[in-house]
Amino acid sequence: MAPTQKQLHHADIESMVDANAAALGLTIDAEHRPGVLINFERIANLAQTVMEFPLGEEVELAPVFSHDRP
User: Is 35 a member of any domain?
Assistant: First the structure.
């Protein structure tokens, strides 16, 4: 079973948004920043739910995903 994921706090989200914006050369206007942070917090919460889903030891990772292959 996978280890429990760390809960991200608001400061963590802000740091990630700032670092990713800098890495991509993006400027986030002050008026848009609160909405961007809210959306990233929502994304982090959804990701936490997915990461906490228990998988059995027999589950293997697929090397490539393709929607048209059985």
Answer: yes
For position 69, what pLDDT does the model report? Answer: 64
Sign of the dihedral through C-alpha 37, 17, 2, 62: positive
54 found inside a domain:
no
Q: Containing domain of residue 34, as a range?
A: 10-46
**Tokens standing for residue 44:** 């982090």
What is the C-alpha to C-alpha distance for residues 26 and 21, in angstroms, rounded to an integer?
Answer: 5
- Six-digit token string for 39: 């959306």
The number of domains in the chain is 1
pLDDT less than 50: residues of the chain: 1-2
Taking the whole predicted model, whether its pTM rises above 0.85 is answered as no
3-class secondary structure, 48: helix
The radius of gyration computed from the CA coordinates of the chain, to the nearest angstrom, equals 17
The predicted pLDDT at position 61 comes to 80
